Amino acid sequence: MRRLSCACLAWLLALAATACRRSPETVPASATQEETQELASMIHVADPRASLQLVKGFHEVEQNAWRWTMARFAVTLRAPAGASQKGAVLVLKGAVPDPVIAKLKSVTLTANVEGVPLAAETFSKPGDCTYRRDVPPGAFPAEAVTVNFALDKALAPGEADHRELGIVVTSVGFEAK
Amino acid sequence: MSRALRAAWWLAPAAFFLAFYWLGLRIWFHQDDFAWLNLSLHVHSWRDLAHALFVPRSFGTIRPLSERGFFLAFYALFGLNAVPFRIAVHLTQLANLVLLAWIVRRITHSRLAGFLAPLFWACSSVLAAALAWTSSYNQILCAFFVLLSLWLLIRYGETGRRSYWIAQWVSFLLGFGALEINVVYPVIAAAYTWFWARAHFRKTLWLFVPSGLYGLGHLLVAPKPETGVYAPRLDASMLQALWRYWEMALGPVRLTPVWPEFGPWAPVATAALTAGLVGFLIWQLGHRRWPFVFAFLWFLALLAPFLPFSGHVSDYYLAAPVSGLAVLGAWAVARGWEARGWRRLLALVLAAIYLGVSIPVARTTLRWHFERGRMARTLVYGLARARQLHPSKTILLTGVTTDLFWTAVFDKPYRLLGLTHVYLAPGAEENIEDHPELGDINEFILPAAVALEALEHKQAVVYDAAGDRLRNVTGPYYALARSRWSRSELPRRIDAGNPLFASFLGPEWYPIEAGYRWMPRQATLRLGGPGRTLRLAGFCPQEQVRSGPVHLRVRVDGHTFEPVALRRGNAPFEVALPLPDKLAQAGELRVVLEVDRTFARPEDGRPLGLVFGSIGVR
């Protein structure tokens, strides 16, 4: 019994030894980053600064380089200078991975910019892909515009991966004309 | 056994445990931890303390020692410094390992079994799940009381000293403050005396009385969920749950998510470990060595209370029960080792399989919890810094992932640092997976029109939580928001205590006090629609119910609801009123709130009705 009492005492002492309460919570000045940033016209989806502009339909960054999309995904981009007069070029770069083509044979990507539809493109071979379309001036009513993308097919969530998987995207944005 | 060997016998498992779980000491708070820490915000008097400690909450649990008392006391002493919490958890488990080693050596008369049992337990991936999360301290502390009670019972059987018997009762009764599964200790105690100290068997039956009373009291007092994952089900699903727990306790199925290539081998490894333990059972029963049953009973008894909750099979529930399997495994290996030949080889192979699958999972589990804690800490201290830099502005968060939201936003940990007016930026919810069984994400979002107005008038800042620290993205977010939302929309939820919503409230409301607003006898507001239910959340002061319930009458665009009687004073209230079809489709609702009496406090003399926080439609 004496041993038990000693053990209990030792346990309590050990707890008491931790009684090193910090002074009122100290907040490091580096806890936030205050630099100002502007909306970008072209974004690399793996760049943490771009995450704000990924509106929906993107999965987590993989290998610090790219993200899988879902069947529908969207980004908000800054209109390039002069876009409301001359229009711009929408460019999406990425890849159609082997498992997508193996299972779905082909995928068709369409886009619309602020409701203005752009022509579709079908990808039937695995590998790098680029979707490039002219966007008319009327699609740029404001400084920031939202581009909605849609795939006709995507890999459904399954045993191996619980996510809906469309294509892989590395960058998306507008090039000035 | 030489002195050095004896020291090594005791110290090696402890040293291994500390080395193995070193990272565990550095894990910060996450998820439910904040709900328990936030309890301290509601304790202002002895009455509040008693309420916080003993009133059943969270699906009917009452755990004053392991959850509420633990978090309240440690938070009072150490604030948001998680290290002392973690030290307490690990010290308790260290005591558990020492007690287990002693007990196993006593009941098996095998030094090897006594050495291996704590090692097998320490390496278990399910124990790691409980150790890594401070909220599951209840499992660790309950195991402590069960083991301590059993140790005292064994000492009582050996010495006949009454003090051990009394101490066992004290330890057993304290165990009810740790976790409900303490009710099964009498089964373990009775089994022990049946096998090893038959003379005391009848005496141990008295231990069933407190367990029975506790069970009865729990049934009467604690709320019992009828739906959802915490609703108990006494049917065949309990057997499925038992098998899932068995698989998890052995470990191989848990390695697959960590190492997918192991997937096809997981059932094989599970089968091998199961066959090894069942084979050992048959071998022992053949020799009429009944005490072997004790270890198995230990596992089953501690697991049994969890089986009715078959919709919520959780790894950390196994932390205490798996100690029984550790005893079983250690005993089997020790017997195999003594038997030599193929049995020794088999014992070593099975032990290697168990350790080979358990150790990587335990390490990954620790790392996973560490990362969640780090994420939560980054957010909480980032918000604190943002508040220092922008003391009068509302803070909006974007870039919040599903994990971050449910880990570190949902329980509002920032309130512990006195931070209010923190919301998700409109649109942020699109990246967060909905879990209606846990809560409503919408309550955290600042309505778009209000956010836009606040940004325009520089009353809000926006931080992106996607990176290693919060990043001020107010400028680009504002540009984005202007293109997506209109300021003319009415919000569907109003936080009466936030000045950003002032323009939607009528002139009757009193000024904001500490994040809330008092209403006089009558107050009005405007809400956006559509929505099927009007929800009101507020606080009813004690003075209002001194002479009976106060009645809240609600009118929406001419439709008057039945008055709501508020009976509990000094307590928050929530009212949900289903809207008639015509109002449910409306784009704008004019709401009138009225109480049947007011009271005045001597210090200001204003007629006071109720305190309101959030009012909205869903």
Strand content of chain B: 5-15%
Cα gyration radius of chain A (Å): 25 Å
The secondary-structure class of chain B comes to alpha+beta
Determine the N-to-C terminus distance of chain A.
87 Å
Work out the number of β strands of chain B: 14
Largest inter-chain interface?
A: A-B, 43 and 51 residues
The biggest sheet of chain B amounts to:
5 strands, antiparallel
Report on this structure.
The complex is a heterodimer of chains A (177) and B (618). Helices cover 15% and strands 44% of the residues of chain A. Chain A has 177 residues and is α+β, with helices and mostly antiparallel strands. In chain A, strands 2, 3, 4, 5, 6, 7, 8, 9 and 10 form a 9-stranded antiparallel beta sheet that branches. Chain A is flat. By secondary structure, chain B is of the alpha+beta class. In chain B, strands 5, 6, 8, 12 and 14 form a 5-stranded antiparallel beta sheet that branches. Chain B is elongated, with a radius of gyration of 29 Å. The N and C termini of chain B lie far apart (71 Å). The mean pLDDT of chain B is 91. Chains A and B meet through helix 1, strand 1, strand 3 and strand 9 of A and helix 5, helix 9, helix 18, strand 4 and helix 21 of B.
What key phrases describe this protein's structure?
heterodimer; A: 177 residues; alpha+beta; nine-stranded antiparallel β-sheet; B: 618 residues; five-stranded antiparallel β-sheet; elongated
